[in-house]
Design a protein that fits this description.
- The chain is an all-alpha fold.
- The chain has a domain of 131 residues.
- It has 20 helices and no strands.
- The N terminus is likely disordered.
């Protein structure tokens, strides 16, 4: 074992990756950089472990769906290589854990196909490098999205931040969990602490702050926040989708119950935001579900039914979370079908269930005994 390999347990987060890349003579990956598809395959002839690991890290850093799935394959091939050093194995396991958790978080695959793998890879990575902040954060994400172990997840997030106070994903994921638990003030405070510690605000953090504000029913603050996000990033689908969810929340709020015209304006704005998000994303399932809901509530039945049919067809060839389908059907006030889908989400341990009480469009199910049984099983 080399001196570098034997020191894996002493390295943390970025230091672990930097040490590996220095040992292999590779440049550190740039977050968000477009990967070179020809360099991504771990099966390319003559590719040494360090360059293969760098290629997999670049795929992971892009956060794009297809790239995340490709990175999982590459990390798994690397971990099967008996020639990997301990440091390389630690980085590959950490990468596999993060990529698998993100695939589950983004609902790219059924949760049973990806979350247990994330859990196992995180445990392997922490055994090799127990001071790796990023892997502690991933462990926290898996604990609350998959195991519904909110206390254990908090321990993981706290440990990650103690090791790397500027790790923005740890702050954001912890904030999202706090919001799911109904601890909205703490969630927003956590985001502010993340901004201060990291010294900058990422696009993702700024956009998901809208989610937290909507969950906290601070709709006017959310409106200011989403306007800033869309001004800075008008061609990013996520911002438009968050605007759509904000408008759904406004439409189902008590303040518009006596004002049908205001409710209609919010629903029209939601519909248009989901249409734009779908255009920018290439027709993602969540935007389609939001469109179906808003169109249904507006009385645009034909449009809502077309969107639902699109989701149903999509579900025959890829994973579509039951909660997306439930949102779509609630647009047409089909509560029975929506509740069936919520219960189906429980059967597969859909990670989105942790947000059951805060997701706009689903709040009309609050208080229904079937809904409450699912919420109790999740622990929210």
């Amino acid at each position: 074992m080399t001196r570098l390999a034997s020191g894996a347990r002493q390295l943390t987060g970025a230091a672990l990756l930097a040490a590996l890349l220095a040992a292999g003579g590779c440049a550190a990956p740039e977050p968000g950089a477009a990967p070179d598809p020809t360099a991504a395959s771990g099966e390319s002839s003559g590719a040494d472990a360090a360059s293969r690991l760098e290629a997999a890290q670049r795929l992971l850093a892009s956060r794009a769906g297809e790239n995340l799935l490709a990175s999982i394959d590459d990390f798994e091939r690397l971990l099967a290589d008996p020639e990997l050093t301990e440091v390389q194995r630690a980085v590959a396991a950490a990468g596999l854990a993060e990529a698998s958790a993100l695939v589950g978080l983004y609902s790219l695959l059924p949760p049973a196909e990806t979350m247990p793998r994330a859990e196992q890879a995180a445990a392997q990575a922490l055994e090799l490098a127990p001071e790796d902040a990023r892997t502690h954060a991933v462990q926290g994400l898996v604990r609350y999205l998959w195991s519904w172990d909110f206390d254990g997840a908090a321990v993981s997030f706290e440990r990650a931040i103690s090791l790397d106070p500027g790790l923005s994903t740890a702050h954001l994921w912890w904030a999202m969990m706090l919001s799911a638990e109904g601890r909205h003030d703490e969630a927003l405070q956590r985001v502010e602490e993340g901004r201060a510690a990291s010294g900058y605000a990422s696009r993702l953090l700024e956009t998901k702050t809208v989610t937290l504000l909507v969950a906290a029913d601070r709709l006017e603050q959310a409106r200011v926040q989403v306007a800033a996000v869309l001004e800075a990033h008008p061609e990013v689908a996520l911002g438009h989708r968050e605007l759509g969810l904000l408008e759904l929340a406004a439409a189902e709020g008590t303040q518009v119950e006596a004002d049908p015209e205001a409710r209609r304006r919010h629903l029209e704005a939601a519909r248009d935001a989901f249409v734009r998000a779908g255009e920018l994303s290439g027709g993602d399932a969540r935007s389609t579900a939001g469109l179906a809901h808003a169109a249904g509530k507006l009385g645009e039945r034909e449009r809502a039914e077309a969107a639902i049919a699109e989701l149903d067809q999509r579900a025959t060839r890829e994973f579509v979370p039951p909660l997306y389908q439930a949102l779509a059907r609630l647009g047409l006030d089909d509560r029975s079908a929506a509740l069936d889908l919520v219960e189906q989400a429980l059967e597969i341990r859909d990670p989105g269930l942790v947000y059951l009480r805060t997701r706009p469009g689903l709040r009309s199910l609050d208080g229904d005994p079937r809904f409450e049984r699912v919420a109790a099983a999740v622990g929210i």
